[in-house]
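question for whoever is on the cluster today: can someone run the full assembly for these? two chains, 702 residues total. i dont have access anymore since they changed the login thing
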Amino acid sequence: MAPLPAAAWKFPTKIFRSEVSNTNRQLRLQNRPKGLLAPGDLQLIESPVPEIKDGQVLACVKYLSSDPTMRVWMAADTYLPIVPIGEVMRAIGFAEIVESRHPDYKKGDRVTGFTGLQDYVIVDESAKPSFQKVPKIPFVSDSVFLGVLGINGITAFFGMEIAAPKKGETLVVSAAAGATGIIVGQIGKFHGCRVVGIAGSDDKCAWITKELGFDAAINYKHPDWKEKLAAATPKGIDIHFENVGGDIMQEVLNRMNLHGRVVLCGLISGYTKGDPGLASFGTVLVKRLRVQGFIILDYASRFMEAATQLGRKMFGKLKDRETIVERLEKAPDAINMLFTGGNTGKLIVKL
Amino acid sequence: MAPLPAAAWKFPTKIFRSEVSNTNRQLRLQNRPKGLLAPGDLQLIESPVPEIKDGQVLACVKYLSSDPTMRVWMAADTYLPIVPIGEVMRAIGFAEIVESRHPDYKKGDRVTGFTGLQDYVIVDESAKPSFQKVPKIPFVSDSVFLGVLGINGITAFFGMEIAAPKKGETLVVSAAAGATGIIVGQIGKFHGCRVVGIAGSDDKCAWITKELGFDAAINYKHPDWKEKLAAATPKGIDIHFENVGGDIMQEVLNRMNLHGRVVLCGLISGYTKGDPGLASFGTVLVKRLRVQGFIILDYASRFMEAATQLGRKMFGKLKDRETIVERLEKAPDAINMLFTGGNTGKLIVKL
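^ ran it for u. tokens below:
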């Protein structure tokens, strides 16, 4: 048989390796990015997989979550400390225990937590609180624990708890075709809301309306998007779940009803371009809006409650789509995709 | 006796008139002001006092409240409709019934409500909901029903209900020497908070600390006011009662603690100069702030409760200062004083 052409090897879709390779590949933060990530901002470093000691666990990372907030962690001390230059980039991942010298874990256990952008992570008592064991559910992909039953589902769950939706209210969510937005919208439908999503392409808009059951979707890249938003929210807006910020947020605030609630979950329009601020704060006053900043880590003690609720009541009904990027080396591209609109639904890096 | 020189008649400090004059002087809105009020924006019109019909009451206005929000009413439809050109300017006043053909009022009753900038107001069923009868309290000036026991006291009361202060927390209030700010700060002290006021002169700062019991005061016109704010809030800021907006608000937000509460009561920095917006909305997200827009009219059904609480629990302890401007013609100047820092405490126009 003739050898495969070189190109076929260039982008392998699957990497075979022994259960515990001798090498741990890590993406370390080398520069604080300006705008989108540039080549070299995250640098691939190889080092031997360390021996674990008593009380430690070695976990092999299978999937990495790509989240807009990672860009924040590279740039500033905020709700988590800035990632120091030279350190493995912080990331949430799904991993499988391959070696354990800790009584609470055994080989084969599966966990999610702050694995970092690397092949292997050592979990010990100091790291343990950020790790959560997850079950094997028949016919369910492991990556769901990073999306619907993971950080995005839980974020949507508690964000909507803050929003306290009532039947018949109008809910708007921005970045509506993103991993969190899609769950927010679907939870809104569970509560009997009129749900309007704002997204950045006609395809995304079609998907969230036709497949996810959103009542309407607005492509903010269309020049008449503001008129379309007005037409889609004839009774005004009672709840806004904000992921984007800037002009989009301002326009939504302009259409809010008195005493509306704004769940401020993310401001991705500013993560690569600087904080866009808000042109008119008077809107918040005159409409008596309640704006609640919201960081999911504050709810850590209730994560299991949320996952249980999502799993029992909604799982199987909640729809998701995954955009899978393969190989650790592509993680920087995956992060950039979040800001250029490249993904629909959950963006996962598969190792 | 030689006649008094003409100048002595130019600025009479007291106008004598019969109990019911034949003339009603009104300040009508002639132009939408740009920036501060210019001469002619409010025009003095004289017309006969109308005869009242069955179901109506004629009240003689004694004191008018000067409130920053009046400038908003001249410029835009917001939480109340814009004042139409040619109409009597909306204002809150204290008035005494001089003639009644309504069973609920008798001559001599005293009321506060939307009297407008005029000498006489007719109250009928349609206007009645905005009027409140007030008692005669021995040794207490009537104008208190426009300040501590009126719109400002009530605003501070419900704003602080939203803030839910706890002992030991740090409260910052802007426009701290204004009619609402001084009550906010004193209620904060009742709750055992560390109270820091922001005001626009050293005299105002000295007054609120030495006489009203604020723990510290910052004159934002000093070049090092941000450093002084930092020094005055060593444990950060838990509650911010916002009356001003713009740069001052941003700096306070920058010093807020996680999960802090912002009561957004006014944004006077923008009323004459356009909405300054907010430079960094990310602060609200990262610090998980709760920002609550707040308009006192929403609490109308509970005004009596607030006045009772203020009267029973705090009155006699709450300190105030009034800046009195005499004569209806000076009401436009009084409104401008609110934006140029001319008043300390409650600003009243005495007719």
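summary bc i know u wont read the tokens: The domain at 12-147+321-350 of chain B is CATH 3.90.180.10 (Quinone Oxidoreductase; Chain A, domain 1). Chain B has two domains: 12-147+321-350, 151-297.
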